[in-house]
Design a protein that fits this description.
about 400 residues; 2 strands; mainly alpha; 16 helices; single chain; 2 domains; about 55% helix
Length: about 400
């Protein structure tokens, strides 16, 4: 009886150690993300629910492996390794791209050599040496001070229950963004904002770990009734015939010998189209004059005044947000990175370039346009040869680049 009690106390102390370590790791991850210890501590105080839930989740990973292997020090090392590696990679990505670590970044695991070259070499060596020391210490602890589960049937049953419950709990992360699910209600309770438009800012608020989870759980859409290969072939054939009929009279049929320029501007509008607004003269005479001389018309937009990345996605792919599940709020960040093939209008052209006179990290634009097959994407925070704008003069004292500068970059 005394042995059982002693074994139970050892397990409880081990679990307490896991929770303490998990809390420290969450703070370290946050500190490296924001770059300041005081800010990280203030974050933990202001976001108590997120801090404790994230700490509990990280500790639960350790409990899972402890129950799986039956050896505490091995489970403890797995948690420490995960936390340290996550913190380091997230911090390195923030330094290089001003964006946190996201599930889509796991694709780069295929190129570990290239990823290591991009990291700060001194910090990388320190991390690798630390992990080697951790392995050695774990080996010594397992040999001379092992903490193992008892082989009594009662403890085997407890381990099995822990494994099943942990798998059930973590399965909910894939539904965290889906409205009216248990996971989503729990997410709302801990005040998880789930703002997908600016991952870096979101990670500062929700924490890098929770932000990573948020980007895992996006449902794309419900399967439409009647959707099948045969139906899609009929639709494609219908519009192929329409296209052939339209193109018969076109003198320039090779689209690659033409230049298509998309200008999606949130600063331009024709006041004459604003309901109940009267003007005494044409405010955009030059634009209207050009429209009279060439093919022109109006485009139905699903939104205005914000959410520009979603309008871009819709204009380039013909996919309106209305088609998607309500949890799919930002396709650039939530959908495009997950798909190997993202059909869009640029597929018709051999050479395609994008210019965005603001931050390329917002909405994950830079990565999205790369997935779209664009050779270059230029923005105000671009760093490489094909990422920088030539013209970027600000509007008076504003932090924004003027439209005239954006158009100069198009001609350049």
């Amino acid at each position: 009886m005394e042995v059982k009690r002693e074994n139970s106390l050892i397990i409880l102390r081990s679990l307490l150690l896991l929770f303490i370590e998990a809390a420290v790791l969450v703070l370290v991850i946050q500190k490296l993300h924001v770059g300041n210890t005081d800010t990280a501590l203030i974050w933990a105080i202001q976001h108590k629910k997120i801090f404790f839930v994230t700490t509990g989740a990280l500790a639960l990973i350790g409990i899972f492996f402890d129950a799986l292997f039956g050896r505490f020090w091995i489970a403890n090392s797995i948690v420490l390794t995960f936390g340290v590696v996550f913190a380091f990679v997230n911090q390195q990505k923030m330094a290089a791209r001003n964006a946190p670590l996201l599930p889509s970044d796991l694709l780069f695991i295929k190129e570990p050599g290239e990823m290591m070259k991009m990291a700060n070499q001194k910090s990388l060596i320190t991390i690798l040496v630390g992990l080697v020391l951790l392995v050695v210490i774990t080996f010594l602890l397992e040999k001379f001070l092992p903490i193992k589960w008892s082989k009594l049937k009662r403890f085997w049953l407890i381990r099995a229950v822990i494994l099943v419950c942990t798998i059930f709990i973590f399965s909910g992360v894939f539904k965290i963004t889906q409205p009216n699910t248990m996971a989503n209600r729990f997410s709302n309770w801990m005040e998880n904002k789930q703002d997908f438009w600016n991952p870096a800012s979101t990670a500062s608020q929700d924490g890098p770990l929770l932000t990573f989870v948020n980007f895992m759980g996006s449902k794309i859409m419900k399967k439409p009734s009647g959707y099948n290969q045969q139906t899609m072939k009929k639709i494609a054939q219908k519009y192929e015939k329409e296209a052939q009929s339209i193109n018969k009279s076109r003198p320039k049929k090779d689209i690659n010998k033409q230049t298509l320029i998309y200008v999606l501007s949130e600063s331009f509008a024709d006041p004459q189209r604003v309901p109940n607004l009267q003007v005494n003269q044409d405010p955009v005479p030059e634009v209207n004059a050009i429209k009279q001389k060439t093919t022109s018309g109006l485009m139905l937009s699903s939104g205005y005044g914000g959410g520009t990345a979603d309008i871009e996605y819709g204009a380039e792919t013909s996919w309106n947000l209305q088609f998607f599940d309500p949890s799919m709020t930002t396709p650039f960040a939530q959908l495009v990175p997950k798909k190997d093939y993202n059909p869009n209008v640029a597929d018709l052209f051999k050479r395609k370039n994008a210019i965005h006179p603001y931050l390329g990290t917002f909405y994950g634009r830079r990565d999205a346009y790369k997935k779209f097959g664009f050779q270059t994407f230029r923005s105000t925070d671009g760093q490489g040869k094909n990422e920088t704008l030539k013209y970027k003069k600000k509007i008076q004292r504003s932090t924004l680049v003027g439209d005239d500068q954006a158009y100069k970059n198009v001609y350049w």
